[in-house]
Amino acid sequence: MKNYTPDETLIKARKIMLESLCVVHNLCEKYHLTYWLEGGTLLGAIRHRGFIPWDDDIDIAMPRDDYNKFAEIAKKELPSDLFYQDQETDPNYPNPIARVRKKGTYFEEKWEPENNKYHHGIFIDIIPIDTYNTGIFIDWRNWVYFFRTKYSRHNYPKGTLKRFLIHIYAHTICSIPFKISRRIIEYLKKHKEYFNNPKSKYMSHGLEWQDLCKTKRKDIYPLTLGKDIFEGHSFYIPNNPHNYLTAYFGKDYMTLPPLEKRYVHHKIIKFDVKE
């Protein structure tokens, strides 16, 4: 693609991601679990038949039940060179979604704080998908995550007094409703009927995630096995990828973004790292 050419390091990292995705695909096939390409990975599949030229990760989605089942299977059956990461297997891991990491590698994103102590292998993201339910809790959760995403990670100014003050605000005041919301989320996870309402016409990203991405159920199911859809490999995609991507990125998703928005998210990638 014009104006962006991935370097050899990123190309090598992508190969590892793709190999990990193939392992996940095979496990899902073996145990009849449902997954599909998600987010920028789905966009890359439809628009580029592979990685978006400046993309540096892989995203897949799973309905909640299969997400939970996969967690137990992955912990037992992933190859020895892969690590299933969530907040149970890696207590210092800050993200609310699971990842499959490649051991012996290192991948650091730009937003990540210094001196963190969790596994940093090259990864693929696994995002849980829930029934979309309306109500005050959904609205309140959006408010909480608005502040957490707007005033945390890499979004506050760097090297200034304002940065310091906003950092304190984000990690004290905002942490209070977040801790409460986490408890509510954990409670709701125990009530499967909240996530598996067959009458709901919509699905969305799980309660853990700040971006709901509300999508019609009929645009997801039945899934399609896209032949050679991503880097020459066949993976599952939503039933109506056009509607799905429109809900996710807007109607102009096939139009390339301006040059200033074509950038990678990683800061450091290393191989052959001792653990």
Describe the structure.
Residues 28-250 form the LicD/FKTN/FKRP nucleotidyltransferase domain. It holds the Pfam family LicD. InterPro entries: LicD/FKTN/FKRP_NTP_transf, LPS_cholinephosphotransferase. One of its GO terms (biological process) is glycoprotein metabolic process. The protein is an alpha+beta fold and 275 residues long. The chain folds into 2 domains: 8-130 and 200-270, Beta Polymerase, domain 2 (2-Layer Sandwich), CATH 3.30.460; 134-196. It contains 8 helices and 11 strands. The protein has helices at 8-30, 39-48, 64-77, 136-150, 161-172, 175-189, 217-220, 241-249, and strands spanning 36-37, 59-63, 82-85, 98-102, 106-109, 123-131, 202-205, 215-216, 224-230, 233-237, 266-270. The strands form 3 sheets. Strands 1, 2, 3, 4, 6, 7 and 8 form a 7-stranded mixed β-sheet that branches. The protein has a two-stranded antiparallel sheet with strand order 5-11. The protein starts with 7 loop residues before the first helix and ends in a 5-residue tail after the last strand.
